[in-house]
Design goal:
single chain, mainly alpha, 70% helix, elongated, binds S-adenosylmethionine
């Protein structure tokens, strides 16, 4: 009984002490690290969505584009909120985790590369690029196989996968890095099957030949 009492007193005093030792002070939370990483994240997200909208308006005209082209869904907002909560929790309890600058900079590089690949895809496809998957063939819809589409069949999905995982690596968020990788990969793996079902109907043997020759651009998706 006495042992149990000692044990409980020890837990009572040691756990808060451990948390205090590992947690950051307010000045650490608003440190250079946090300001820089959160600013990079804010700018990356803002640039991504505004440029998606601007390109959609450029190619399809303002009347044919809704705010859905900002690509902000409820699930997406939830994921971003979760990643922000992870960041704040970790910078408070494990501030050293955010100081791995080579990891954070690798994430920043992924954000830049992913953004460039995605925007090259949108610009190359032009009017053929629509945020909603076409299920009816329009005469003006041409099969695009040049530029980035000559390297991978789904460059915009490949770019978004790199971009989104990159944002979490940039924030040194281990849980969200794994979560974003699984969720975004799964989303595109399913979407590609659906999208290609219609592309095969629209373009027949030309699409078959293209798909045989060019990889999807999303890992482990044929
Ligand atoms: C959101 S865009 C994505 C395009 C492509 N999957 C990518 O990742 O870059 C979806 C629309 O692009 C069209 N699309 C996809 N690949 C295409 C291609 N190679 N040529 C023409 N249109 C394509 C589909 O019909 C669909 O309506």
């Amino acid at each position: 009984m006495q042992f149990l009492n000692h044990f409980l007193v020890d837990i009572d005093t040691q756990i808060p002490a451990l948390i205090l030792r590992n947690s950051a002070s307010l000045s650490e939370i608003f440190s250079y690290t946090a300001c820089r990483q959160l600013f990079q994240m804010f700018f990356a997200v803002l640039f991504f969505h505004v440029s998606e909208y601007v390109l959609a308006v450029t190619f399809h005209g303002r009347r044919n584009v809704s705010l859905r082209s900002l690509l902000i869904s409820q699930k997406y907002l939830f994921a971003m909120l979760f990643s922000l909560m992870e960041y704040v929790t970790e910078i408070f309890f494990f501030p050293k985790l955010k100081e791995y600058w080579w990891i954070s900079n690798l994430g920043l590089l992924m954000v830049l590369v992913g953004e460039i690949v995605r925007k090259m895809a949108i610009i190359t496809a032009g009017r053929a690029f629509t945020h909603l998957i076409k299920i009816r063939h329009e005469e003006s819809h041409e099969l695009v196989t040049h530029g980035v589409f000559g390297f991978v069949r789904h460059p915009s999905y490949c770019g978004f996968l790199i971009w989104s995982v990159g944002t979490q690596i940039m924030l040194c968020n281990p849980i969200s890095t794994i979560g974003f990788t699984i969720v975004v990969w799964h989303f595109f793996a399913e979407r590609i099957v659906y999208e290609e079902y219609f592309l095969r109907q629209f373009f027949g043997s030309r699409y078959e030949e293209y798909a045989r020759r060019v990889p999807s651009g999303v890992p482990f998706v044929k």
